[in-house]
Amino acid sequence: MPVTIQDVAREAGVSVSTVSRALAAPQMVREATRLHVVETANRLGYRPNRAARGLITGKTGNLGVIVPDLSNPFFPAILKGVQSQARGADYAVFLADCDENGAEEAALVQAMAKQVDGVILCSSRMSPSQLERTIGTTALVLINRSVRDQPVVIMDVAGGMRQAVDHLAALGHRHVAYLQGPRASWSNQQRRRGLRRAGRRGIRVIELGPFAPTFEGGLHAADLALAEDVTAIVAYNDLMALGVLSRLADRDVKVPADVSVLGFDDIPMAGMATPPLTTVAMQHGRAGRAAVDLLVNLISGADAGELRRELECQLIVRASTAMPRTARTQPAHAVAPARRDAPAVGT
Amino acid sequence: MPVTIQDVAREAGVSVSTVSRALAAPQMVREATRLHVVETANRLGYRPNRAARGLITGKTGNLGVIVPDLSNPFFPAILKGVQSQARGADYAVFLADCDENGAEEAALVQAMAKQVDGVILCSSRMSPSQLERTIGTTALVLINRSVRDQPVVIMDVAGGMRQAVDHLAALGHRHVAYLQGPRASWSNQQRRRGLRRAGRRGIRVIELGPFAPTFEGGLHAADLALAEDVTAIVAYNDLMALGVLSRLADRDVKVPADVSVLGFDDIPMAGMATPPLTTVAMQHGRAGRAAVDLLVNLISGADAGELRRELECQLIVRASTAMPRTARTQPAHAVAPARRDAPAVGT
DNA sequence: ACCGATTCTGCAAACGATTGCAGGGTTTCA
DNA sequence: TGAAACCCTGCAATCGTTTGCAGAATCGGT
Questions:
Q1: Could you tell me if A2 lies within 8 Å of chain B, comparing CB atoms?
Q2: Which of A197, A343, B62, B201 has the smallest CB count inside 10 Å?
Q3: How far is the CA of B8 from the C1' of C13 (A)?
Q4: Nucleotide minimizing C1' to CA distance for residue A28
Q5: What residue spans of B89-202 are helical by DSSP H?
């Protein structure tokens, strides 16, 4: 039923080799023959069988992507970028969801290995040793996790956090809570790294948690943060921040009048919350595309390919952050010295 | 580098045929040999090359899924079900996103056809003629779109709407706005079908729109609905309903005191909104799983397989719906006659 | 018209698995 | 001990491509 290269060859009156070459290596075949073959192939609706081709070339033309959890909007966003970039490079995409399970993830890479030319791991949940063992099974690119000598795409979360800190400092905040996500996660580490700037800006930070990186986690965290008497709350991600917003509303704490709230990710809902959430936006789609670029490079053996692609984060200022009451009761410039003094504090 | 069946055969001191059979047809080979082969295979870490197998068997062991837009949370939810069910049935999953474009979608099916045993189309955006032409290229299962003689999984959206109508009627609402989504979409049609029950329940419905099925669409629609002096607003989906909620809050219209709001889909945010949104929940994951079941059945040629799998929707009552002011000013039982009269009105 | 140099084209061997068929062993029974 | 019956195992063909190699066709120049 499906039309093979044999069919095209017979129909065109040439050998299969000629058909193969006419389609893949145009300069090796006479122009007239080429045209004839191509025309015949189109007329018959011939599409090469990738499996058969892969058997001999050793390349499958497939990429694999493994994500921890499709119901976390973070990952479909990346996936979308992977998708379109892969299509552009003429690769098909295998998808797998490992349910936040590192062992499962490792198993999936093994299972995929034979069917793909390379795999993209999003926020891998593998333990370092699992990861170490997995590297080498197939070409691998990591997103948001960094391993020595392995190509990675990382989002400059620490940089994003620094923007957030500067923003809060500029508004005059001096006492801020950070609501941690999963303690071991790379993302959480990076956020904390960025937080170190707070000292230099004269901001005292109190770290709470870890909390579940969810709406419910935010509900939970909000009360604890409030008890610390801070003027601003930075949440691990937007989902948590939305939870915080919701809980504060219930307690009649006004945002941003009484306390400022800040999230990470810029998920679609962030802009729709009341008040719209100030947050650190990530370039999900770009990350996906970059990962494909890196992987394709790696596969084609161009060792000259770069190993590390860092994507900027961008603070999106919306209505959930403002000057704290304390700062607003005095002239605005009164807060300036605090910032200028800061270097002295830091050193 | 990768270990082939040849390697296993050599190592185990048997022929490749024996290895193949030891792994695939246990009863055809002596128990002792089988054990030895299996042990060797495991020791060497042998995994059959699916492409090679597919060449001869004609089966690839792969499934394809095409979705209109990964950034719509509706689809990742389905995808998650597809994923896990496919894994259970030992199929790998190809994913493609057609960017809401029917032509692209058709092209993707063609491109996938050779590499998969079947394809699942979620809320296909193809025109009827495109779809007609695509059927037959490969085994096909549709989700949320119904075509004669084609296996489909559909969500009983009309039934869900009827639950919504009954709920509003029971609360005493008599004048309701429905905010339409994309007019041509199957989902919108189904919702309108379910709305027909309103007449029999003594409810007057005014249909507005179409609007974009997004938060912004909801912002837009809210004012129009308010102008119609209704006591309840039913939105095409939750995203729109959230927009409505947001706009009403801005206008100081209290929900549910002044007006009730109701959505569709039960996206994660629905329960986190203020007030939490009453909505019609769909069984996304189940839909994905069911589609895989149908497809696997179809592939294995068991024509006895069912053709149509209908999934119930379930109204989730939260805090965004309540009795209208009009009904609340009189004793609650006063609204009962309206409902009992209803059949007469309907006939 | 012939020769060498160039271009094209076809043959056949891979790639890694599955499977029909036939042959080799072992067992069973006479 | 021999033959029939059975159970295992191996040979070899096959799936649809690509590609090294060799042979055929074309061409230009004399």
A1: yes
A2: A343
A3: 23
A4: C8
A5: 102-113, 128-134, 157-171, 186-195, 197-200
The pLDDT value given to residue A328: 57
Helices B16-24 and B5-12: crossing angle in degrees, nearest 10, is: 100
**Token pair listed for A62:** 């497939």
Give Cα separations from A146 to A81, A94, A124, A189, B14 (angstroms). 20, 23, 10, 12, 44
CA–CA dist B103, B130 (Å, integer): 8
User: Could you tell me if residue A244 is left (phi over 0), alpha (psi between -120 and 50 degrees) or otherwise beta?
Assistant: alpha
Residue type, A339: R
Closest C-alpha to B166, from B274, B314, B304: B314
Q: What angle do CA B242, B247, B249 make, to 5 degrees?
A: 95
Contact B112, B64 (CB under 8 A): yes
Of A51, A115, A274, the CB nearest to B92: A115
Q: Do the beta carbons of residue A122 and residue A66 sit within 8 Å?
A: yes
Confidence (pTM): 0.87
- Least CB-CB distance to A272: which of B52, B114, B215? B215
User: Within a 13 Å sphere around the CA of A202, how many CA atoms are in the beta-carbon half?
Assistant: 17
Query: A177: left (phi > 0), else alpha (psi -120 to 50), else beta?
Result: beta
pLDDT digits (tens, 9 = 90+) for B262-297: 999 999 889 989 899 999 999 999 999 999 999 999
Phi–psi pair at A203, nearest 5 degrees:
-105, 135
Torsion of CA B135, B140, B144, B146, to 10 degrees: 40
First to last CA, chain B: 76
Distances (CA, A) of A112 to A63, A119, B90: 9, 8, 12
| Calpha distance B38→B23 (Å, rounded) | 7
Q: Which residues on chain B are in Cβ contact (under 8 Å) with A48?
A: 114
Of all nucleotides, the one whose C1′ comes closest to residue A7's CA is D16
Nearest CA among B214, B250, B253 for reference residue B235: B214
Tens-place pLDDT, residues B20-53: 999 988 888 898 899 999 999 999 999 999 999 9
Q: Which two tokens stand for residue A13?
A: 């009156």
Write the CA distances from B271 to A140, A204, B81, B238, B268, integer angstroms.
Answer: 38, 34, 21, 10, 6
Please indicate whether, in this complex, the C-beta atoms of A93 and B92 are within 8 angstroms of each other: no
Query: What HEC string does chain A produce?
Result: CCCCHHHHHHHHCCCHHHHHHHHHCHHHCCHHHHHHHHHHHHHHCCCCCHHHHHHHHCCCCEEEEEECCCCCCHHHHHHHHHHHHHHHCCCEEEEEECCCCHHHHHHHHHHHHCCCCEEEEECCCCCHHHHHHHECCEEEEEECCCCCCCCEEEECHHHHHHHHHHHHHHHCCCEEEEECCCCCCHHHHHHHHHHCHHHHCCCEEEEECCCCCCHHHHHHHHHHHHHCCCCEEEECCHHHHHHHHHHHHHCCCCCCCCCEEEEEECCHHHHHCCCCCEEEECCHHHHHHHHHHHHHHHHCCCCCCCCEEEECCEEECCCCCCCCHHHHHCCHHHHHHHHHHHHHHHC
Kind plus residue range of the DSSP H or E element containing B207: strand B204-208
Nucleotides on chain C within 7 angstroms of protein Cβ? 7-12, 14-20
Footprint of strand D on the protein (CB under 7 A): A 2, 4-6, 16-17, 20-21, 23-25, 46-49, 52-53, 55-57; B 13-18, 21, 27-34, 52, 55-56
Please check whether residue B99 is in contact with residue B69, taking contact to mean a CB–CB distance below 8 angstroms.
yes
